[in-house]
Amino acid sequence: ARFSEATAQQAAKAVEGAVRIGANECWTGPFPVAAEAAMKRVTEGNWYEPTNEHATLLNAVASVEGVPVDRILAWPGSSDPLSRVPVTFASPTRGIVTADPTYEAIWRTGAWIGAKVTKAPLKPDFSHDVKAMLAADPNAGVYYVCSPNNPTGTMTPLADIQWLADNKPKDAILLVDEAYIHWYDGPNAASLAAARDDVIVLRTFSKLFGMAGMRLGLTIASPALTDKMMRYDGGQVTGMLPMTAVACGMVSVTQADLIRARRAEMTANRNETVDWLNKKGVKALPGSHANMFMVDWGKPAKDMQAAIMAENVQIGRSWPIWPNVSRVTVGSATDMVAFRNAVAKVLKL
Ligand code: PLP
What we know:
The protein is α/β, with parallel strands linked by helices and 349 residues long. The chain has helices at residues 4-14, 32-42, 53-65, 79-89, 105-113, 130-136, 158-167, 190-195, 223-229, 236-239, 243-253, 256-279, 301-309, 333-346, and strands spanning 19-21, 72-75, 96-100, 117-121, 142-146, 173-177, 199-204, 217-220, 283-284, 292-296, 313-315, 325-329. The mean pLDDT is 95. The structure holds pyridoxal-5'-phosphate.
């Protein structure tokens, strides 16, 4: 239970040749044009920074997102800032509030620093219940909104996120985790993080950009906040990034057509399988805007995960609040055929 995403990846690795749709990785690698930029940097690996890659990445992101460049910072993945936010802004007297189910990394960091973690169930449409979140702990230090949410893939309307920003304690931080935002076309929370000094947005290159093993993430936030998050390392650790990843990310963010095409392909794969499940009388939860969906088996999800693994398909975990519901990552069309065949065999459909 300590590192559940990593554990899922280990399980997928242990079974050579298994279909890996368990850890919300991208089924394919970085865009070829971005991978090529990374390859070039391998031969220059003797330099901490061959030229000015770091600034070029931040400028590229600033122009794509329409956010001032001094509010963008790059990290070796988004897990690092996701842990630093509670360490910096929560405490034994200022807790953390999240939805349930949601991405649980922050629960574990909260437990370690002795901050009370309060969980408010998702609404019936699987968006965050921001009013219930505030009511659950009106004096928290950190309010965490994951949108699209892991594991449901569902969006929380920007108006609700804005409401939470406006109504939380002034000195509390609203952390909006947008790891899966590239599968959503509507407004995102970057505008809030650009305009306010109490909202932090997290992004990652691990998902749509296919760079989970290369490690690159972003924060969009006021420098006053990120300076606090870097107090123990003086910005040294944050500043030292793998230049292969920086080069790859820099080229990736500008590929609007490739991003759209990859999103469309994965959305089609997701919808096809969700429709198939529902037609077969298996309940797939609606509303995902990400590379994942959930399936309510009506019986323990752990057993279904094991039975499907026996068919060489590794699906994701369940959450304690919904023990009968598994998360499934959207893979290639071929991966999804393998998943449907495994489900049909296990459930005798
Ligand atoms: N946030 C969410 C919602 C995630 O699902 C994940 C990974 O699964 C992360 C953050 C961390 O990803 P990374 O550290 O690879 O950026």
